[in-house]
């Protein structure tokens, strides 16, 4: 019994020692050679593209002319070529009107772009006010300024994107070299930026106002009272960035009315006078929604 028992213990101990003993170096090297090989290509992920906001701008309207006689027997007399309302910005060469810059959202993260806003570019008006009489004689007495231009910049949303290319190996058998399987890269787009422009303001032509009080006399000679022409107001183009089908919104603009003539008095005498201004142009920019 003791001999048999001793034999069993020795055999079991030998098995344990064998399982616990470290593998030879050449065996480890062979297993590493046969194991899975995984190779990762670069993963490029970009997010948080910067937003772009332009917009705002001041008025560039032409100055007004006001003649007001308030004393007893007050009268206003305007000769040829007198009283010319200022031209709005964008009319005179060298002036640009009221314009906002373009806004382009940062790419690789989908920055939003917002432009829009701009100021008035109205032509200057002329106001004549007398107690007893207002007299306008000669050509071009009282000329309203022309409306200028008010334009908002374009807006282009930034494209959001993330690119991944991978090459994955599969497990191989310990008895044969491993297999390798290749996966083609793909493009994945994060949220792209929206584009919003719009706004701008009024570009009306200047008006003419002659007021001789209820009992006064108003006389307008030939060629007098020429109201200003309306200008151009145009909102920029909005382009949504591709990738996730973002929207684009333009719209808004101001009025581009021609200037008006207002004559008020107990007696009004017009001789080939009073020319209201022509209307200008008001354009809303194009808007292009992006494909998803």
TrEMBL record:
Bias (Polar residues) ranges: 180-202
Signal peptide: 1-20
Keyword Hydrolase included in the entry's annotation: no
Entry keyword annotation includes Signal: yes
Regions of compositional bias (Gly residues) in chain numbering: 71-92, 103-113, 144-160
Domain of life of the source: Eukaryota
Biased composition (Low complexity): 53-67, 93-102, 114-143, 161-175, 216-227, 247-256
Transmembrane segments: none
Residue span of region Disordered: 46-256
Keywords: Signal
Protein name, as recorded: Uncharacterized protein
Organism of derivation: Steccherinum ochraceum
